[in-house]
Amino acid sequence: MSATDLDLTRPAASRAAVMWRRFRRNRAAVLGLVIFAAVALAALLAGVITPGDPLRLAGQPLTPPLTVAASPFGTDQLGRDILAGILHGARISLLIGVVATVISIAIGILIGAVAGYFGGWIDDVLMRITEAFQTIPSFVLLLTLVAIFGSSLTSIVIGIGVVSWTAPARMVRAEFMTLRQREFVDAARNLGVGNASIIFREILPNALPPVIVFASVVMATSILMESALAFLGLGDANFASWGNMIGQGRAVLREAAFCTVIPGVAILLTVLSFSLMGEGLNDALNPRQKK
Amino acid sequence: MPSILVYLLRRILQAVPVILLIMVGSFLLIQLAPGDAVDALVGDMGGADAAFVERMRQEYGLDQSVLVQLWRYLVKLAQFDFGWSYVYEQPVATVLMSRLWVTMLLMVGALSAAFVIGVALGTLAARRAYSLTDNVISTLGLIFYAMPSFLLALLMILVFSVKLGWLPVSGIKDIGAFHTGWRLWVDIARHLVMPVAALSLIYMAFYMRLMRTSVLEVMDLDFVRTAKAKGAGGRRLMFHHVMRNALMPVITLLGLQISTVLGGSVVIETIFALPGVGQLAYTSVIKRDLNTLMGIIFLASIIVLVVNIVTDMIYAWLDPRIELQ
Amino acid sequence: MSATPILQIEDLRISLPAGADRPYALEHLNLTVNAGEIVCLVGESGSGKSLAANAVMRLLPEPRVHVSAGRILLDGEDVCSRSEAEMRKLRGDRMAMIFQEPMTALNPQKTVGWQIDEVLRLHTDLDRKGRKARVLEILADVHIPDPASACNAYPHQISGGQRQRVMIAMALVMNPRLIIADEPTTALDVTTQKQILRLIKEMQAKHGTGILFITHDFGVVAEIADRIVVLRLGELVESGPADQILNRPQHPYTRALIAAVPALTPPPHKPLSDAPVVLRASNLRKSFAARGGLLSGRRNAVVAVKDLSFALRRGETLGVVGESGSGKTTVSRIVTRLLESDSGEVMIHDRDLIRASRADLRSLRKDIQMVFQDPMASLNPRKRVVDLIAQGPIVHGVPKAEAHARARELLELVELSPAAADRYPHEFSGGQRQRIGIARAIAMQPRVIVADEPVSALDVSVQAQVLRLLADLRDRLDLSLLFVTHDLRVAAQLCDRIIVMQKGEIVEAGPTAEVFAAPEHSYTQALLSSIPGRDWQPPQLSVA
């Protein structure tokens, strides 16, 4: 024992290395990362593996999988190649997932941070607005937005972002309400640091970990929402989409279930990869404090 | 208990600004939509001369200022007058009311199944944390969570209706059978099995995962250690000390998810051709029946707010720390 | 019967899971508790004292942490070989436990009566009426006023002291042979602590129970111990009768621990009456609006501070002492304007901090800096130490390079290695973090430092070092200290003058030596007589 408690511990490993080690310890999360990498790769290489328009006629309609080399996953009732649909559909799913998540998290952080930090009437007003958005069933609101603004890819992405910011906003608000009472915030105010700087430089970095974990959930639900829209035939018809493929496969469900099952598995795996990675991120960013 | 009533009244008052915001918001949405009610009507009629259009505009008050229109809109909504559905040729309120019971049955069935099974499995998984049972339950949870409800619905139709022929594919009752009494209810129940299952699985997965973490957290708390130090263990410990406390976040989530469940019923009702509000939402979008859509939004919001108030009351009843003043 | 001790721990070893910072939480622990005896198990954080308690109850988080060697005998019977079902019969019946935090140790969803009743349901055949009578009886025994209504109260509806009485009632209701008390008074105010300690002694004398009392506080030890066992990092350091350990400790660690206990002799009174006043607070007032809804109407506001005035001279340390709810923390926040006061003024060099404009406030903040209570919570975990210390000067316009260079010098001033500069707060011990907090305050070159319970989260030995550093810096830099604390020993050691607060008001003020020697107000008298171990004068020890 040192008499004066001044010895430093050994320097800790860098933050990124520690986080990667914690993430890696969760085998399910690593599996999620692998699946995600595969989906991302499919999206990147779609044009190389299956060049040309995925919506064009590629062969005999309703060719079963593993019978024709040119269409290993088979074709649907219009003779479109399912593999091409899956690969190009990955682009749409990821694009929608990422952009809609960025939109919703950005709105959520802004509203949640301001409401949680300032409190009082500002919080009251912002929370009533949040509640209003949360009260309207988000999928119904999304349908309405699509009915009004049309079903272009852009309006769908913005629509999904606009209907899913409430949960992140509540979460950020709760984090801010806890963190603003922590003494380091008082310490910063005591040094004369301004409000904007306290919100974005002092509190936000500490509030982010749970939000980042939650982003994986938002991304998963965004993809599910888009596929549900497409399934109902309300997606952007100009792009191949997994939901759309399932919706059309429904007509031939009895004789050619593969038209439904293959894109279904694609959605399932993608969403699963986000959930698994989310758990790993949670381990990495919010390690449980053990005694 | 008068304090409960005061609390209830206060919660209802808190809901008023939310309702107002939703009303104003939906009005603004309609304003944003290209064309107005008269355009829709004229479109349906296949065109009309300019003078007629002008007269209709006056009749609907569309020539007034936006604020006047907003005021009229709010007054009408407050009287549950959602306007006329040009698709169903009926007042929107009538259309909604005739379909509400189907959606309510579906929702209540799905949520109660999800809650009961989710809480039970979650508790089981937590009690046997990191065992084989836990791994199986948790993995199933992850898969259900990632499974789109429409895919699940189609797969169930394929297996239970097409292959096995056990359950009806669509509708809420057998058409032409004209069942009455309990036979009618059995028939309706048979029609609801698959829709309820398809809608509830994802929520079951939610509650299961949340209950598992919550139970594990509560088991680490001081008062559970106190209970153990008193000699409590087994079922008594789980039931009185752990589960009741662990349920709180699940109930909160339940309240928050009512609106998502309503949204999910759109897809499920469409697939199973259930004549409910969700299916109505889908056809209204396809036919661009904005009046009906706004009616649905308003009605759904009221349902969500009512359920939220009920869950808050349950929460306050379970947790004595909530001051009912 | 008198021959067999109630509890015998022989050569106990508790293993930690692989990857922990040491293989054993506890090793070679030997200890005996006889009937009617209070044995204190003393140690700082990390000594393994709480694990020992849990091991006796067999409440360790097995199998990760488990007893790997040795025996624990309760009335001569080995506890370690019992099955879980047999243990459940023993717990609550023949041995019971009292925990540190009475708020979290009670189930928030059940009434007090239900929770005591549960013990009887588990261990007796009494019918409902019989159990009810016993619950009321035991509540009366622990001096709960109005047991009948306390029965129906939920834990959050009664005070901290009463909650701890309920815990004690719960432990005593079966008249157990052994009670394990794990820091049972640490979370309580001194006056409440005194009552609870008295209650524990009273109950123990009445029933001849053996008590294993776990604590870090030598004052409490001096108050109640018959025998003492000192632990350090899982190893038994020294054990023996109370008088021997307290007054003639042999082992260097025990000696260091006891030497670190602040004596109750205030410093000689510094003649400061001619030094200029650097901070003058007058007529400060703050009330908090109680939460009220639309319908319930506003409840009466809670007055936290009413009409408070004091002056702080250059080079002086003014202590603000009081129990929780006295408003002492509110004072520290108003004076630094982290909290807006309702009225009054705080003059620093003829400028009023309370009514200063935004721009003035910014420049005034340089003069008055704060050191916070929780050294973990007061440092932003995402910032490097050098950035933390340099932040203030940079905000006030000092160029970054210069501020960083100065921050590194300050590290030396607070006796930390320069290598600390590039690390993050979580890499430091509590005492080191508090040094960083002090460096951050000093970086602004303030005239006044407000310290809000700066050492209450630290172990005794570290406490002494941080206090020494504060006093040293105060003298070298000619600073004035406003020192808020609940710990009268700490106040006695450091403060030139003290003000004693109760319910938002100053009940007594004066030079520390005078207040301690002859308290005038009855509350001050009660406070001083509640200091645990006040009759024990820690021996003057030379620490090697």
From TrEMBL, chain A:
Coiled coil: none annotated. The keyword Iron does not apply. PROSITE patterns: ABC_TM1. SUPFAM superfamilies: MetI-like (SSF161098). GO terms for biological process: peptide transport; protein transport; transmembrane transport. The chain crosses the membrane at residues 28-49, 92-118, 139-167, 211-235, 256-277. Pfam families: BPD_transp_1, OppC_N. One of its GO terms (cellular component) is plasma membrane. It comes from the Bacteria. CDD domains: TM_PBP2. It is a multi-pass membrane protein. Keywords: Cell membrane, Membrane, Peptide transport, Protein transport, Transmembrane, Transmembrane helix, Transport. It is found in: Cell membrane. Residues 90-278 form the ABC transmembrane type-1 domain. Its main location: membrane. PANTHER family: D,D-DIPEPTIDE TRANSPORT SYSTEM PERMEASE PROTEIN DDPC-RELATED, OLIGOPEPTIDE TRANSPORT SYSTEM PERMEASE PROTEIN APPC. Belongs to the binding-protein-dependent transport system permease family. This is Peptide/nickel transport system permease protein. It comes from Amaricoccus macauensis.
Automatic annotation (TrEMBL), chain B:
It is a multi-pass membrane protein. The keyword Transport applies. CDD domains: TM_PBP2. GO terms for biological process: transmembrane transport. It comes from the Bacteria. Residues 100-315 form the ABC transmembrane type-1 domain. InterPro entries: BPD_transp_1_N, MetI-like, MetI-like_sf. PANTHER family: ABC TRANSPORTER PERMEASE PROTEIN, DIPEPTIDE TRANSPORT SYSTEM PERMEASE PROTEIN DPPB-RELATED. This is Peptide/nickel transport system permease protein.
Automatic annotation (TrEMBL), chain C:
SUPFAM superfamilies: P-loop containing nucleoside triphosphate hydrolases. Pfam families: ABC_tran, oligo_HPY. Residues 7-258, 279-528 form the ABC transporter domain. GO terms for molecular function: ATP binding; ATP hydrolysis activity. One of its GO terms (cellular component) is plasma membrane. PROSITE patterns: ABC_TRANSPORTER_1 (PS00211), ABC_TRANSPORTER_2 (PS50893). It is found in: Cell inner membrane. One of its GO terms (biological process) is transmembrane transport. It is a peripheral membrane protein. The keyword Transport applies. Keywords: ATP-binding, Cell membrane, Membrane, Nucleotide-binding, Transport. InterPro entries: AAA+_ATPase, ABC_Ni/Peptide_Import, ABC_transporter-like_ATP-bd, ABC_transporter-like_CS, Oligopep_ABC_C, P-loop_NTPase. PANTHER family: DIPEPTIDE TRANSPORT ATP-BINDING PROTEIN DPPD, OLIGOPEPTIDE TRANSPORT ATP-BINDING PROTEIN APPD. Belongs to the ABC transporter superfamily. This is Peptide/nickel transport system ATP-binding protein.
